[in-house]
């Protein structure tokens, strides 16, 4: 599946993360900005990749502005952004 | 590649052998100071009748006093409102003076850019301080200085000045009032900040003492905290600082439920400890939870009909209120964190100004911290050995100050109050990035999920275990709980170069901070 419609979810408040999804011309591209990148960068990217995979998304540009969000928050915000982009009304319950 | 040989101190921190030898340091062994006999030093005095001190020219004073290779000092009582530091450093840089050691009582954010400029110009090549943060902390952590910064507690700085480890050639001290001979205090004037505690040591031991003030008053100025017998120059300037930024304004009680929960638990710990009895003493410090503790403690003191003999340290408005209510008999004041506390000093005889030596110098004939029953301190990190870091952030960058942390931790019961996690950063960790205060000094950790008592304090565990408001856990349980929430962080990458040495109170080295890999 490809992301074509730009969508946004989350805020830049402390402990939150803001995702902007847009069309990509080169598979999955993740741009992560985080104050804890040195410590948790790999783990955050892993959560993003796993969540995209669960929705079978193979092409998307992900811009993530992290403010120290926990994994559960990262996943929730990304799922919302994906649904908004794909125009889904209901979450994909199996993913949750 | 050069091989770095390291040795370990008694709490297992690795120290660079060559640096320890070069700087004549010994590794930290224990918190016990003992009864050594120490020799103090005395300053040089240029004899004068005192009629030649008043000037308006910083330029002339710098030219006459500051030479290459000297040690200069400042105090940080004007905090983020300080104009003096940048004013004086500007002139020193302009005159092309090189290779200075900068030895202020601490460095605040407003000084950062000027320090970096002075380092780049070769004006400052060494720094000795209580701490540093912001852009300067970043620059030093990435190796801007050739030699390591020496970091000391407020008490240890007094010790180092008194015994000559730090020999201040010129002290530049901003004051909110002074007469033409240099009698000055911190209590009145536009830039009043209350206690001059940290500056008094500089005034007593520097070879040259330069006061800078925007408020020259009639001679003789009383009460005089700094005396004319100590002062070489009085420089009249436009403004010594921005009153709005010297201390925080009206103290607001936190509404943060996490802070309140921690504060209530801290209070429960105090009240159920053996120290909560008539005439006890305490130090709280600033910050949301600490201020809230004062409020809970007030109620407990009223309920149990108990008063405190003294409150110590950095003073805030809630502490002054306790003094006014008679719940605290004396406030022993080394610095004032807010305007209410600063203003109160001139009106209340029981709010006694004390210098850093009286407050916390370990090499003393008795410091106030040694009389302290209960102390509440904060932490960036605390590990399962109860060692505390208040110096480096989770990213390894210098972003704090020792302040009185090591000193006040000698209290009979030292409580660390801290949230279990901050954002995605764990506060309770397996091993702190930098040890500032050894776990041996720490008795209780209070977080919002539970209280951990240092296992060596069996008496406290016994005292707390049946109290419903004190959920006792082991510190390992708290650490695992934090890790479950935030995950396991990757390891930071450092080079072999040491960017800062952390002294313990007795001049031994408790830890080193390494340069971060870019």
Commentary on this structure:
The complex is a heterodimer of chains A (96) and B (518). With 96 residues, chain A is an alpha+beta fold. Chain A has one domain: Ribosomal Protein S5, domain 2 (2-Layer Sandwich). Helix content of chain A is 35%, strand content 23%. Chain A contains two helices and four strands; from the N terminus they run E-E-E-H-E-H. A four-stranded mixed beta sheet of chain A has the order 1-2-4-3, covered by helices on one side. The longest helix of chain A is centred in the middle third of the chain and has 18 residues, at 37-54. The two termini of chain A are 19 Å apart. In chain B, the strands form six sheets. Chain B has an eleven-stranded mixed beta sheet, with helices on both faces. An eight-stranded mixed beta sheet of chain B has the order 16-15-14-13-17-21-25-26. Chain B has 16 helices and 28 strands. Chains A and B meet through helix 1 of A and loops of B.
CATH architecture descriptor name of the largest domain in chain B:
3-Layer(aba) Sandwich
- Helix run count of chain A: 2
In the residues of chain B, how many domains can be counted?
2
Instruction: Write down the overall mean pLDDT of chain A.
Output: 94
Kindly report the spatial arrangement of strands forming the biggest sheet of chain B.
3-28-27-9-7-6-5-10-11-12-4
Major sheet description of chain B = 11 strands, mixed
The class by helix and strand makeup of chain B works out as alpha/beta
CATH class of chain A: Alpha Beta
Q: Which structural class fits the helix and strand makeup of chain A? A: alpha+beta
Largest interface comes to: A-B, 15 and 12 residues
